[in-house]
Amino acid sequence: MLFLLGCYSANFNPQHYWFLGLLTLSSLYLLAGLVIFMFFWLFAKRVFMLVSIVTIAIAWKPLGQLIKFKTDSFTLAKATNSLRVMSWNIEHFDILEYKTHPETKEKMLDLINQYNPDIACFQEMVGGEKDSTAINYVPTIAKRLNYTTYFYAYDKRNDFDNKHSFGTIIFSRYPIINKQILKNETFNYNAMFQFVDILKGKDTIRVFNFHLQSLKFSQENLKYIKEAETNTELSLQKSKGIISKLKTGFIKRKAQSERIAAAISESPYPVIVCGDFNDVPNSYAYCTIGRGLKNSFAEKGSGVGRTFSGISPTLRIDNIFVDNKFEVEQYIRIPKKLSDHFPIITDISFTSKAPLK
User: Fold this and answer.
1) What is the pairing mode between strands 192-200 and 203-211?
2) Strand stretches in 160-202, DSSP E
3) Torsions phi, psi for 4 (to 5 deg)
4) Chain segment 214-225, per-residue pLDDT in tens
5) DSSP letters along 273-311, please?
6) What is the pTM assigned to this prediction?
7) Alpha-carbon distance 278 to 326, whole Å?
8) Which residues contact 33 (CB under 8 A, 6 or more apart)?
9) What is the pLDDT of residue 357?
10) Distance CA 202, CA 197 (A)
């Protein structure tokens, strides 16, 4: 029952049933428990194996979003008619460590150039557009990555320092003919998202990029998650703090995802949706934004596809969704720890004879 509630929690309003999000986060562990029990009953009393088998069968569709067993290899060379899209939470291009470890940023730029995406959507971008002495001067980064155009979205009040702002950015090798920033709330970075209209040949594509409400775990929170406390009273206090942050995240992502889904539904063009969801597959935010779209990992990924390098090996919280008018050709997650997230890339193409405008 816990496993099924976790798989289908998107059907419940997080405003009232936020705690079901905890089960969604635990879905893969609950699945592992089901499989273990299935083997246990195989030797104890076989008829009870049906409990696990029937449960897994009921959850077969959401399971397809959680784990894939495909072993398709990724070809670095792009097909002639394909479009390569990258999404990556770049964690500020490691600007805080730039003076002591400038090589990290260089490795990140080299990796992007190696895979040569036509469209690159970055979250947690820290960059400057006005002062050419800025460490992350955006025009210089665009030139280094061979992009002809970009759209950097940020709130001017959310200043990183005197030379840099904090936001999201879309780079494109094709002309950007329209750009937009949309906000839900006043001065809340996570409530802001961007989209652009890109002209590829005669076809227009709308690309969304966003960063949903983060959990805002402190270093103390992360340490507690990794190392169990022996002091019961202190442990209870820390657990309450973590659960409170999880609850806030579930509720805020509900509103954010609904606003993004509404904007997607209003698009006159086929869409590509990239983002750091800060939530796992089958969550309310994941299903609300992805409704009616293809998830590139679910189409061509393999394993559990972890994209966040900390806390748990099961956290796939970064996604690329595409319109049904696109065919997903291949997908890759690059497990190089240059940021606290792993970059994801997909190659897509237009389905034959699909009208795009």
Assistant:
1) antiparallel
2) 165-172, 176-183, 192-200
3) -65, -40
4) 876 545 545 544
5) EEEE-SS-TTSHHHHHHHTTSEEHHHHH-EET---B-SS
6) 0.91
7) 25
8) 3
9) 47
10) 12
